[in-house]
Amino acid sequence: MKTVKFTAMKDGDREDYEFLNEHEIGFAAKTGDRLLEALVKLDESLSGYKITRLGHSLQTATRAWRDGADTDWIVSALLHDVGDIYAPYNHDEYAAAILKPFVREQCTWVVEKHGDFQRKYYAHHVGGDPHARDKFAGHPYFDDCDQFCERWDQTSFDPGYDTLPIDFFRPFVTEVFSRKAYDPSVMRPGERVPLSDPETARERNGASA
Ligand SMILES: [Fe+2]
Ligand SMILES: [Fe+2]
């Protein structure tokens, strides 16, 4: 297998770095596939709930899809807990770092903060702070994170829910991670897209009922 000539980075030349750049582009193109594999691994994490972490992720994304949410929201919902395996104490920031170059700023913020917002539902039972979210009061995306948790995340632990399979979401993930990183037409800083779109929801639920 061809490799670069150098053993220390400072000794590399243009040919070496052009060669590496090609490799990097090929590797980056498969990010979506690797993330879906990581999601499947989530099946092994965090026992005790009535459904697995993969089941929870798929159910969260299914609710987003049925709400008529756009692709950025659906993929963010699907991957919001992907950090559970390697970053159990800041899984929200971990997932946000993965999504950040490829989805709207609004969605990245919501995923990054969802851990604090979720505390509203359980922290008072374990000596934590259910008001951890209050430090973000007045932030433009505060209500979006509130809705993300209320409508999609905290409610998606139901083994009886009709959850869509992982392959249903593959095209959404592939589309998002094939985008140009940090494309301004994707980032759209400050723009708020509603989580739900009633007309799209009607179409989808009619088609999938
Ligand atoms: Fe989470
Ligand atoms: Fe979650």
UniProtKB/TrEMBL annotation:
Residues 188-209 are annotated as: Disordered. Residues 199-209 have a biased composition (Basic and acidic residues). InterPro entries: HD_domain, OP_Dioxygenase. Pfam families: HD (PF01966). Residues 53-120 form the HD domain. This is Peptidase. It comes from Aquibium oceanicum.
